[in-house]
Design goal:
By secondary structure, the protein is an alpha+beta fold. It folds into 2 domains: about 5-185, no CATH class; about 250-385, 2-Layer Sandwich (Heat Shock Protein 90), CATH 3.30.565.10. About 65% of the residues lie in helices and about 10% in strands. The chain has 11 helices and 5 strands; from the N terminus they run H-H-H-H-H-H-H-H-H-E-H-E-E-H-E-E. The chain has helices at about 5-10, 10-40, 50-70, 80-100, 110-120, 120-140, 150-220, 225-240, 255-270, 285-305, 340-355; strands at about 270-275, 310-315, 320-325, 355-365, 365-375. A 5-stranded mixed β-sheet has the order 1-2-3-5-4, covered by helices on one side. A hairpin with a 2-residue loop joins strand 2 and strand 3 (about 320-325). Helix 4 packs parallel to helix 6 (about 120-140), helix 5 (about 110-120) packs parallel to helix 7 and helix 7 (about 150-220) crosses helix 11. About 30% of the residues are buried.
Amino acid sequence: MRSTSETVQDVEGPLLRAVVGYRLVAAGWMTLLGIFLITDQDDPLGSTVRVVVAVGVVLSWTTVATLIALRRPEMLRLQWFVAVDAAISIGSIVAADWAGTFVFAGGYPLAAVFATVQSRGTFAGMAVAGGLSLTALIRLGTLTDVTAAEFSVVIVYLIVGGVAAWTFAVIRRADRRRSDAEALLINERTERARVDERAAMAARIHDSVLQTLALIQREGDAPRRVRLLARRQERELRDWLYGPAEPTAATGFKDALTQVCTEVEELTGVEVSLVVVGAAQPGPEVDALALATREAVLNAAKHADIAEVAVYGEARPDGISVFVRDRGTGFDPSQVPEDRRGIRESMVGRLDVVGGMVEIITDPGNGTEVRLHLPWERAGRDADDE
């Protein structure tokens, strides 16, 4: 259940402004009708004093109600406000009777109906409308030669009150559905962001901690090598936790590839030959491409049983491409265990997020080539290429 202050600030805000606007227009119209009555010297039933008092009361209350609506809208729900509003509206009907014409009241009494429907709901609004109708009916009993137009005033309040109650209820239901849909969309986006963040963290941990642990297991008989790996992993984790979000973020395409290739050489002892043609501006997409390249090179160094991996990067007219080749044992992608997430998350998943793609061409016994591509609309161009 939404609080009054929360309700006033969403759909109730426009409704409240509409009610305030109607009250101001109705009070102004009643004032003009009163001026016409006062200046009409041929009207024997006109009472200048009564008209002036009625108009003065309506204008004073309109000023107070407007200030309350604009500054303390929660007060509109208080019983005393509704009671005073209804009393003054009923008084305007009585004053019109005293002036000799219902026309003098104009549409001002409806302001109380609209205000009550807006602040307290359908039943309270219809109760006020019923009170206005009953007052009009009683006042008609004191007049002779009642016209159909005058008698219609008796039912107008009920009809308009019912229409207002139905309209406000429809608007509120539509706003509630919109608010619920917006809340659901926000929750979905938040959950999607959490999933993406968890996936990015899992990929990062796989690329660093898990890979290092696997290398430590393989290098268990070389204590010095194990210590170097542990120290390097400690520095990388500290940078990741307390420094930049992506420790491989570099100043450009070539620097990013150079950095990841150097890391793999230090981790595995396998030589990585790198050739880069062209340039691209740094950014998250280039960093994601570099991290996916790192995973491809590291997989080749770990599993291909080779002494060298070749990496070729190129900034081409259709985007940035990186090719990672080895002459090792090759593998069957369909036979990769489900718990080995390097290809699925660290390469394919990472490039999917930035609009890139991965293609793996492998032949068991003859080596593997991994092709990574990032279109220009997702990658930054170098300033010289513009």
